Amino acid sequence: MSKKRLRTEEDAAIDLTPMLDVVFIMLIFFIVTTSFVKEAGVDVNRPSADTATRQEQGSIMIALRANGEVWMDRRQVDLRAVRAYIERQRVESPEASVVILADTGAETGLLVEVMDQVRLGGIAQISIAATEGGGG
Length: 136
What we know:
- The chain is of the alpha/beta class.
- The chain is built from four helices and seven strands; from the N terminus they run ααββββαβαββ.
- A five-stranded mixed β-sheet has the order 4-3-2-5-6, with helices on one face. Strands 1-7 form a two-stranded parallel sheet.
- Helix 3 crosses helix 4 (108-120).
């Protein structure tokens, strides 16, 4: 009788190794396929607009400060380097879009030049960030 009880306990054991293998493979898959948002790296005083809408998409962030500095990926870049950076990012993520965070004191001419460099880099979908709810 003790042999019979011992045999049923062995049969009831569940091997968890295959389940853990599957879980780790799924974890690796999700980490690899996740697209990470690259932040500009500085805080800017964004203008407000009544017609501002929330956009969840936007994988490349460019910040324009009031003193004329252009920031991408947490570092200050020259205006001429924007196009090369956009081209590299487009190779990594062809469906990428750009969000420009322009300070309220930033020059409009600089904003237009940055938008031009982004378009020359191959990305046509450009958004300009604003806070919701204007003062008008």
